[in-house]
Specification:
It is a single chain. This protein is of the alpha/beta class. The protein folds into 2 domains: about 130 residues, 3-Layer(aba) Sandwich (Oxidized Rhodanese, domain 1), CATH 3.40.250; about 240 residues, Rossmann fold (3-Layer(aba) Sandwich). About 55% of the residues lie in helices and about 10% in strands. The protein has a 5-stranded parallel beta sheet with strand order 5-6-4-9-10, with helices on both faces. α1 crosses α10, α3 packs antiparallel against α4 and α12 crosses α13. The protein is globular.
Length: about 400
């Protein structure tokens, strides 16, 4: 008979514990069913389930129809033999790579306890569990999305499409990249091959980023000028209002530079991703079809005549690329979209926010300004942290 192992003391996790887990990137094993994990999980966790979706459904149905004892009995029957071995091997393999990993389930109850017991019986060491499971961690994360949790001065980075805002954000430490968290570039052409996270996961990622930012006690919080919606995901209203009230920095770049930036990201880099996903022949063809579909989604705003021009230039550039291996033709349709669609739309929006604009400049000028704002953070009552890169 399997030896009984001591149970981990169940003291409530603290906000500091959750913050430290996020800051240190402690590996987490989510033993919930895949369908639960897909709906929302702790950022960075890996899903190594105790029960499959079907098994979870059967146990839940049994619980509703016959009660707790019958449901537990069914669970024990399902988790015998090969099923147990498969789950255990997956956990042990992951723990071999990440011995500091912690387990969690929905509420820190039976599923993570069973997993810990099995691992302990196999290794002689009980892995740590997150008390309260995902539900408790989710509550902590939601607490990071309220105005009271934002104690840094919000600074919003704006600029015309292709000015390089995302590239600039990557050169700073005190920023949060909303587009990366939402897995979307924020424009009609901004979808990635990989799907966007669920709304709960987007909120969890954003909350984790805010918690890490707050842990480092930055004086300022720099975000890109976004609407409340990023693709199909959206910012909580109160948080969006905070960002919307921040001072606005406008990054400026010449048209030619912006065309090059867009071409590099949406043509060269995007086609490389398509090739790796669909193959050298099928990938670029799939890319072209998706770009045409993106243009079609702008039909009402572009107008019929302009849409035809854009698609004609896109296909002409595509043929030149196929026959000559030259991508430069793509700059023609990109130029039209920037000058005749994105720029007028952005200029209209920025004019409505002009009273919030406190600085304009090129990349290095904006970087210097943002770093200076952070370095003089003692005016907010906190010492400015070192290490901005």
């Amino acid at each position: 008979m399997e030896q009984s192992l001591p149970v981990i003391p169940r003291h409530a996790e603290t906000a500091e514990t959750y913050s430290r887990l996020l800051v240190d990137g402690v590996p987490l094993i989510d033993v919930r069913a895949p369908v639960e994990f897909a709906a929302g999980a702790v950022p960075g966790a890996v899903n190594l389930p105790l029960l499959t979706d079907d098994e979870r459904h059967r146990v839940g149905l049994c619980y509703r129809q016959q009660g707790s004892d019958a449901a537990h009995a069914l669970g024990r029957r399902l988790l015998r033999g090969q099923r147990r071995e498969e789950a255990l091997v997956a956990w042990l393999d992951h723990l071999e790579k990440f011995p500091e990993a912690r387990l969690y389930c929905a509420r820190g109850g039976s599923r993570s306890a069973i997993a810990a017991q099995w691992i302990g019986a196999a290794t002689g060491r009980l892995p740590p569990r997150l008390v309260g499971g995902y539900k408790a961690f989710r509550a902590f994360l939601l607490g990071q999305l309220v105005p009271a949790a934002i104690d840094a001065v919000p600074i919003v980075l704006g600029g015309r499409t292709g000015s390089g805002k995302t590239l600039l954000l990557r050169r700073l430490a005190n920023t949060i990249d909303l587009e990366a968290l939402a897995n979307h570039r924020g424009s009609s052409f901004g979808q990635f091959l990989t799907v966007q996270p669920s709304q709960a996961d987007f909120e969890n990622r954003l909350a984790a980023a805010l918690a890490i930012h707050r842990f480092h006690r930055y004086a300022t919080l720099v975000v890109e000028d976004e609407g409340r919606h990023i693709g199909k995901r959206f910012l909580p209203k109160e948080l969006a209002d905070i960002f919307a009230g921040g001072v606005l920095i406008v990054l400026e770049a010449p048209l030619a530079e912006r065309i090059n930036t867009i071409s590099a990201e949406y043509v060269d880099e995007a086609q490389a991703v398509y090739r790796s996903s669909f193959g050298d022949e099928a990938g670029p063809v799939r890319w072209l079809a998706d770009m045409e579909a993106s243009a079609d989604r702008l039909a009402k705003r572009l107008g019929a005549a302009r849409l035809v021009r854009v698609k004609q230039l896109l296909n002409r550039a595509w043929q030149r690329q196929r026959t000559e291996g030259d991508h430069h033709g793509h700059r023609d349709w990109i130029k039209i979209l920037l000058q005749e669609y994105y720029d007028p739309m952005y200029d209209y929006q920025i004019d409505k926010k002009k009273e919030r604009v406190v600085f304009r400049g090129g990349v290095e000028e904006v970087l210097s300004y943002l770093r200076e704002r952070e370095e003089t953070g003692e005016t907010t009552g906190r010492a400015a942290p070192a290490g901005l890169s």
